[in-house]
Amino acid sequence: MAPAENLKKRKIAVLGARSVGKSSLIVQFIENQFVESYYPTIENTFAKSVKYRGAEYDCEVIDTAGQDEFSILNSKHAIGIHGYVLVYSVTSRASLDMIQVVYDKIIDFCGVTDIPCVIVGSKVDLEHSRQVSPAEGEKLAQEMKAGWVETSAKTNLNVAKVFELCLAEIEKRAPRNQTGEPQASRCVIM
Ligand SMILES: Nc1nc2c(ncn2[C@@H]2O[C@H](COP(=O)(O)OP(=O)(O)OP(=O)(O)O)[C@@H](O)[C@H]2O)c(=O)[nH]1
Questions:
Q1: Full domain range(s) for residue 86
Q2: Fewer CB atoms near the end CB (10 Å): N or C, the chain?
Q3: Cβ count near 119 (within 10 Å)
Q4: How many Å lie between the centroid of ligand 1 and the Cα of residue 126?
């Protein structure tokens, strides 16, 4: 049995196509600021304590490099991860398509049928450049049995909600996660 304090540690990986606003979403959540300039991410880890349903969760948020159809899923982004935030930009249809690609790679890697996951449509402040309707984003999330929300890191719209929804998706599957260990990191001896 894992020590009680480990039960509230949650590792969340944020994935999606390049430049969709993954880092901006995380930096707004952790540091309450928005940076207009673009610096491609290699990898970054952030920590924040989040209160959800009266309990304090120690969240480790992993910011990843943008993915494309050819990138190989880094095992660090599958093993030991409790929940996923998959980000597309509402201004890019191609980035929505990338969600399915990344999702399938995680499912394949972990050998599971579904994962605790939130699909995020970012950059809603750029309404004039919208290419993906809310209904399309929500439909994809339903197919994946995932949470869904549209955000703006620029105006701080729904940013905290992303991580609350992710904790909700993780806790929904609580029987699997009661030991504090996500499914893909367990070893079963037959
Ligand atoms: N208008 C607007 N711009 C945004 C928003 N979020 C991010 N951006 C801009 O989009 C660009 C890319 O943002 P990043 O957060 O670096 O994107 P990323 O997904 O982390 O990029 P990679 O590290 O390459 O994968 C930056 O110029 C941001 O300022 C948003 O909510 N609204």
A1: 4-173
A2: C
A3: 27
A4: 12
Mean pLDDT value of segment 151-174: 95
The answer to whether residue 149 is domain-embedded is yes
Residue in 14, 18, 24, 43 to alter for ligand 1 test, most ligand atoms within 8 A of Cβ:
24
> What's 50's domain CATH number?
3.40.50.300
Phi/psi zone of residue 158: left (φ > 0), alpha (ψ -120 to 50 degrees), beta? left
pLDDT at position 7 over 80: no
23 C-beta neighbours (distance < 10 Å), count: 22
167 in a structural domain? yes
Please check whether residue 185 lies inside any domain of the structure. Answer: no
Would you say residue 187 has pLDDT above 70?
A: no
Judge contact between 11 and 81, C-beta under 8 A. Answer: yes
* Burial class (CB within 10 angstroms; exposed 0-12, middle 13-18, buried 19+) of 33: exposed
Annotate 127-173 with DSSP letters as a single string: GGG--S-HHHHHHHHHHTT-EEEE-BTTTTBSHHHHHHHHHHHHHHT
Domains held by the chain: number: 1
The single-letter code of the amino acid at 132 is V
Contact call for residues 41 and 23 (beta carbons, < 8 A): yes
Q: Per-residue pLDDT for 179 more than 50? A: no
Separation of 143 CA from ligand 1 center, angstroms?
A: 26
Residue 9 lies in a domain: yes
pLDDT, tens digit, 9 for 90 and up, residues 101-125:
999 999 999 999 999 999 999 999 9
